[in-house]
Design goal:
binds (2E)-Hexenoyl-CoA; Butyryl-CoA Dehydrogenase, subunit A, domain 2; 13 strands; six-stranded mixed beta sheet; 659 residues; alpha+beta; globular; single chain; binds flavin-adenine dinucleotide; Butyryl-CoA Dehydrogenase, subunit A, domain 3; 23 helices
Length: 659
């Protein structure tokens, strides 16, 4: 039973649920990963849903100030509950997820703590982490500047070592060097990991991380030399406006030398720069960590939107039989299915590839601990590429779900506008998606160039080693078609770049094609990981069959959508393309009776979904009607402003008509 629906009196979706051909409880386990994962998520979701402090149905009606205060209140209350109930790290993180309101704690736990863990020495970790763990300090991640975000090497903030005092002087030399965007910086954080150019002995050693205190721990006022503020309102109502994305300027602010994060490189007491024997890209480790978690978040956001759209499509009826019989559920329209079911399949696909990516990340981290850097490039390519492809697809899908819900999808009470507004910046933060895909493309080009030297590609690039076969064969098997498409697109790009006067120029000219080659490579990974998942032993009546269906939907839909690539590279014939489309229609018919149960398997509470259209009990119309009356505009029958602006107008019209 989904968590807060036990009391639902009428289940308007009961017939849909009864029609499902698989065990929903077992599917919940397949989705969450284990029985334990289902149980703990269930408990945390229930805890949040039943606590009035975590109410969020009025969020889009709050002013920015009230919304921010509400966020502070929720964060403090969540922390109180975490301490009182002695929640584990896993439980606490789920509780924060279900509170579902972007706020400074996301950056504190999600970036500040990981940056210190990844880039701080053991000594620095011992000093700073206990303070952060107990919330005696609040931290954020201050990298992006007004003038530069994507180009990290172009950042301008300086950290100049002063050997006289054994301190770094942090300074913002220009307006464009102002830190701009960091979440939690504007109003909440007391500390930040600040990225700045390290200058010592007159030499610029590039970007490094520093722990800098920004606000007094006594009264929260900015420390001398520090200018701080919020950067202003953002897209949509409610949504990401709960976050205090901030601006920060330094005027020669001094910090002790030991606040430079010194795991990757050090500055000695005398001011000598010492590079450790670790790759300098580890400076970007926090971003890699967050990118992998963003892939898991994509499946959460997408599954929420799909859950709303599927349930509502089963309730909503339009048109019907000619003889006045019942109208048709819009979920029965073939067009609705062909728009919605690929999104349902994508939610599952992203979930499983997210799990795999988490495994890859953990594996790389363990290897790094024993100084094995061999999989660093693979981790970068997979996190960057999957982050880009899954967030772009999810942002588009949320908007598609809004349209699938017709007019009511445009109401705030559908939950979809806010979900979209909160979600879309994921295409930009933690690396603009185009910039990240170009990173993948660079690695693809490097791999192609090494093929002739006999170097065998490994990991997710291993298929490129089958170059002779994949360049020539006609592909009968689905994965092979995806492999051939990705490889041939990459090889085409490499050949075209090879004809340019130099590599950089060629890469620049061919970058639109390179983006598409990178997408093809990443889609191959998603399809492969879904197939690997369905080949596992998956218990529960009908569960494996449903996942197999969804896997086929994802693969064939992707193939259909990018048929141009497959045909242009000769990876498929037009006849195979047409057959794939035929097959897709049949698969949708198999998904149809299971659709509602497949979204029930996400096990979301009505509180977390935050949507009158996606209610578990399907009792949509009374809820929509009731919700409308809660709008502040309906507090008075005659609107404020009537006497000033409507009455005189109407009176004037009355006078004119009497003339
Ligand atoms: C949740 C909401 C909160 C949001 C928070 C934020 O947004 S926070 C702000 C988020 N901000 C952003 O996300 C900013 C996005 N921008 C960036 O991440 C970087 O500027 C860049 C990667 C685009 C270029 O960097 P660059 O000019 O320094 O480098 P380059 O291109 O010249 O490549 C040199 C080599 O490094 C390799 N390599 C690169 N990255 C990694 C890695 N992570 N790991 C391992 N390796 C990596 C690359 O493959 C290449 O290898 P090769 O060929 O030499 O063997
Ligand atoms: C909601 C939100 C929260 C954020 N939180 C944080 C935070 O906590 N801490 C932090 O430090 N930062 C944060 N950021 C900043 C974020 O990381 C950057 O905005 C992001 O990295 C993109 O950089 P940019 O803004 O410089 O975009 P730009 O690089 O200026 O992008 C503008 C356009 O240029 C294109 N472009 C750029 N470079 C290239 C290229 N080489 N080739 C082709 N096209 C290119 C892009 O594709 C895009 O279309 C946040 C941003 C947002 C929106």
């Amino acid at each position: 039973m989904a968590v807060d629906h036990a009391a639902a009196e009428v289940d308007h979706l009961a017939a849909e649920r009864a029609a499902a051909r698989f065990d929903v409880e077992a599917m919940k386990i397949a989705w969450a990963g284990s029985r334990h994962a289902v149980d703990v998520a269930d408990r945390m979701a229930r805890l949040v849903a039943s606590d009035p402090v975590f109410r969020k149905d009025n969020r889009t009606m709050l002013s920015r100030k009230d919304l921010f205060k509400d966020t502070l209140r929720k964060a403090a209350h969540a922390w109180k509950r975490i301490v009182e109930l002695r929640l584990t790290e896993e439980e606490a993180s789920l509780l924060r997820q279900y509170v579902d309101q972007p706020g400074y704690v996301d950056l504190h736990w999600g970036m500040f703590v990981p940056a210190i863990k990844g880039q701080g020495t053991e000594e620095q970790q011992k000093k700073w982490l206990p303070l952060a763990y107990k919330f005696q300090i609040i931290g954020c991640y201050a990298q992006t500047e007004l003038g530069h975000g994507s180009n990290v090497q172009g950042l301008e903030t300086t950290a100049t070592f002063d050997p006289m005092t054994d301190e770094f002087v942090i300074h913002s030399p220009t307006l464009t060097s102002s830190k701009w965007w960091p979440g939690g910086l504007g109003k909440a954080s007391t500390h930040a990991v600040v990225y700045a150019r390290l200058i010592t002995e007159g030499k610029d050693y590039g970007i490094h991380g520093f722990i800098v205190q920004l606000r007094s721990l006594e009264d929260h006022s900015p420390l001398p030399g520090v200018t701080l503020g919020d950067i202003g309102g953002k897209f949509g109502s409610g949504a990401y406006n709960s976050m205090d994305n901030g601006v920060l300027r330094f005027d020669h602010v001094r910090i002790p030398r030991d606040q430079m994060l010194m795991r990757l490189s050090q500055v000695t007491r005398e001011g000598k720069y010492v590079q450790s024997d670790v790759p300098k890209q580890l400076l970007y480790g926090t971003m890699v960590y967050v990118r992998q978690s963003i892939v898991a978040d994509a499946s959460k956001a997408l599954s929420r939107a799909v859950c709303i759209a599927v349930r509502y499509s089963a309730i909503r009826k339009q048109f019907g039989s000619q003889d006045g019989g019942p109208e048709t559920q819009v979920l029965n329209y073939r067009t609705q299915q062909s728009r919605l079911f690929p999104l349902l399949a994508s939610a599952y696909a992203f979930r499983f590839v997210g799990d795999w990516l988490n495994w890859l990340y953990t594996d790389v981290t363990q290897k790094l601990e024993v100084k094995d850097y061999s999989t660093l490039q693979e981790a970068h390519a997979c996190t960057a590429g999957l982050k880009a492809v899954t967030t772009s697809a999810t942002a588009d899908a949320i908007e598609e779900c809004r349209k699938l819900c017709g007019g009511h999808g445009y109401l705030n009470s559908s939950g979809l506008p806010e979900l979209f507004a909160v979600y879309v910046p994921a295409c930009t933060y933690e690396g603009d998606n185009v910039v990240l895909l170009l990173q993948v493309a660079r690695i693809l080009m490097k791999t192609v160039s090494q093929l002739t030297s006999g170097k065998q590609p490994v990991g997710t690039m291993a298929y490129m080693g089958k170059v002779q076969h994949l360049m020539q064969s006609k592909c009968a098997v689905k994965t092979e078609a995806f492999e051939a498409r990705a490889l041939r697109m990459a090889v085409n790009c490499a050949q075209n770049i090879g004809q340019a006067s130099n590599q950089e120029e060629g890469f620049y000219e061919r970058s639109p094609d390179l983006l598409e080659a990178a997408v093809a490579h990443i889609q191959l990974i998603i399809v492969t990981k879904f197939i690997e998942k369905v080949h596992q032993d998956i218990p529960g009546h009908g569960v494996k069959e449903q996942l197999q269906n969804l896997c086929n939907v994802y693969a064939l839909y992707t193939l259909h959508k990018h048929l141009g690539d497959f045909l242009a590279t000769g990876s498929l014939t037009p006849k195979q393309g047409a057959l794939a489309n035929e097959q897709l229609g049949k698969l949708y018919a198999q998904v149809r009776p299971n659709a509602v149960a497949l979204v029930d398997a996400f096990n979301y509470t009505d509180h977390y979904l935050g949507s009158v259209l996606g209610r578990y009990d399907g009792n949509v119309y009374p809820a929509l009607y009731e919700e409308a009356w809660k709008d502040p505009l309906n507090e008075t029958v005659v609107p404020e402003g009537y006497h000033e602006y409507l009455r005189p107008l109407l009176k004037q019209q009355l006078k004119l008509s009497r003339l």
